[in-house]
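[INFO] parsing input record for DUF2141 domain-containing protein
[DEBUG] input buffer:
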Amino acid sequence: MRYTSLVAAFLSTMTMLAAAPSQAADLKITVTGIASADGQVLVALYNSAETYQKRSFRVASAPAVAGAITIEIKDLPPGDYAYSLFHDANGNGKLDSNVIGIPTEDYAFSNNAMGKFGPPNYEAARFTLPAAGAATSVNLH
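[DEBUG] output buffer:
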């Protein structure tokens, strides 16, 4: 009898846990300083220093609009993130650069972080996404 009660309590708890909604947060990124409506704005979202600028956790894109746009990335687990984005004006899917590696298309990083000779480090671009979600904004340069 005691064993049956224990099993019933365990199964009841597991059923409630399975039915509980998982926490998912939405991130809204407003991008300003878009020079033209050509191409699209591409976003790469990273969830660790180890994967930053190597392997994105999520990607998003939106058609470019001269001035500003807002891109929303839905259903993210709350936690620490950083993102990089750029205006792919020619639509080739990559950040174009000149012969010495300086980008020729406008770009930005979360927190409007800037690096000295390359992208900023993860800590400079890192922000915390709470369970309630968040809205951020960056300006292209």
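[INFO] Residues 1-20 have pLDDT under 50 and may be disordered.
[INFO] shutting down worker
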